[in-house]
Amino acid sequence: MTAKLLEFKSITKTFGGICALLNLSFHVDEGESLGLIGPNGAGKTTSFNLIMRELKQDKGEIYFKGHEISNFPTHERVKMGISRTYQIPRPFNEMTVTKNIRIGLMPDEILRVMNMNSDSKKEIDIAKNIGFSEKQRLVFPNELPMGDLRRLELARTIATNPKLLLLDEVFAGLTAGEITELSNLLKKKRVEDGLTYIIVSHDLKSLAPLVDRVVVVNFGEVIAEGAFEEVIADKHVKKAYLGT
Amino acid sequence: MVKQNYKNGGVLKKSIIWWLLFAVLMSSLPMAFSLGTLRIFIFANFIAIFAMSWDILSGYTGYVSFGQPFFIGIAGYASAILTSHYALPLYVSMPVAVVLTMVAGTLFFLPALRTKGTYFAMVTLAFMEVTYHLVQVVKPGITGGSRGITGLPLLVTGAVANYYLSFFSMLLVAICLLAIGKSGIGTVFDAIRMDEDAVKSSGLNTTKFKLFAFMLSASVAGIGGVLYTHYLGSISPRGMFDINFLFTILIAALIGGERSIIGPIIGAYFLTFLLELLRPYIPGSWRYLFYGMTALVVYNYFPKGLYTMITAAGDRIRSGMKRGEQYDSKAS
């Protein structure tokens, strides 16, 4: 149960003279849901970018299922079972919802991709499962409200058949109703697919019921770690958030 | 659901009928037109092949290439040298030249694939210019220097035979590229254009797909290049690596409509005939001014191209008819 699925080991990342992550370490166990919180600019999204190899760390190693993956390109990591959503949804704007999901489903082989030109049962199943109506499936992303765009991001990442999902600011820009809906969906998918989550969010109230453990980051360093209530009561965390 | 499937099948059948009609119509042209007009058609067919080769790479993936003449030239020169200096028969030299284009293109453009946007365009343009100069300086004994090589063997002789050859080559290329464009590969190319990083994070190796687009484009340009060279019977650096040649290809694809494969064909015919029809009325190079202006006007008002304009008009008529059908079905 307590096998480490992903381990982020003493990672340092600088942008020019600015140190975004300083010797940052954290891990997530298999089946766990980890909250990654911290004030703006703490290095949360940078961590995600490093895990996906959209950026390369200066120092340190990343382990996934016990393998060192620091030199693996993005698509290899996705094939191993890591997938992410973006803070600002990045759908393929000139494609319908189902076609967006299809991109996630596509195997990384030219000959097999060649045969994937029509609606497969699988992509419709995923769309249904995520809660897109038959009408919405044929809609283009620019006609969707924010809540549905976030669900589309989720659908496309789930289509890649991940073990570990990195959810970046999933609740930003959503109405209270949409947040409840998405939370329930995340809970459902976690049980259904046996997913492991790392969730970044500023909306701590919505985050609390979703996570087993929280890591608080500030200026690229871990300042607290533990159960949600404990961490929130920590004086360092209060100071980081409130500035006093 | 059932309705949807029926609709897709219907569209496919309809498009096959359209292609057959197009092929029959074009095959009967030699009966109706003079040999001079046929030669214009031949040129248009070649421009269409080149424009389609541009479309499958640049139109789909958004990596704008200025390097088409580079491919065409490599293929043309390779086959020209193999036939004139090594006296190889055409059926050997042509496939070798196409393979060589793909290999050379891939090798040269691997570094280019690491760049994006304008930089990619500039790198490809640079390759064309560099080749233009190199061909004249390096081993002029073999390449014929700035005068090029003349007296090359012809594939077929006569305007009619050449017309059929160019047309059916064009048709074959069009059908193959269209099938690829409509397949999942086309979807991935599309997605790369929209957001390459999001494609990567969907687990696809974009470099592999871009390289495939690239080799596809190179091979089509290569096929066009050898056919074109052995149609003309001569090759020269000015004729191949010319910026005007490049722009004719580019504008044909853009005016006709990118990302449609059919668009570049329409664009190629439109442009070639526009130039030829202007010839009697406007002296000298003045017609290039009109040609440029027309291109500008068309591109300004129909940025999605002539093909989209035609299909949009068709859809409008059809939706009008469908509304009638719906009314009928409701009534019954």
Give a written overview of the molecule.
The complex is a heterodimer of chains A (244) and B (332). With 244 residues, chain A is of the alpha/beta class. Chain A is globular. Chain A has a domain at 4-90 and 163-242: P-loop containing nucleotide triphosphate hydrolases (Rossmann fold, 3-Layer(aba) Sandwich), CATH 3.40.50. Chain A has helices spanning 44-51, 74-80, 97-105, 110-114, 121-130, 146-159, 176-193, 204-207, 228-233, 235-242, and strands at residues 4-15, 18-29, 33-37, 59-64, 67-68, 82-84, 164-168, 196-200, 213-218, 221-226. The mean pLDDT of chain A is 92. The relative contact order of chain A is 0.18. Chain A is built from ten helices and ten strands. Chain B is globular. The longest helix of chain B is centred in the N-terminal third of the chain and has 27 residues, at 35-61. In chain B, 42% of the residues are buried. Chain B has a domain at 63-155 and 180-240. Chain B is built from 16 helices and no strands. In chain B, helix 4 (68-84) packs across helix 11 (206-232) and helix 5 (90-109) packs antiparallel against helix 11. With 332 residues, chain B is mainly alpha-helical. In chain B, 80% of the residues lie in helices and 0% in strands. At the A-B interface, helix 2, helix 3, helix 4 and helix 6 of A face helix 9, helix 10 and helix 11 of B.
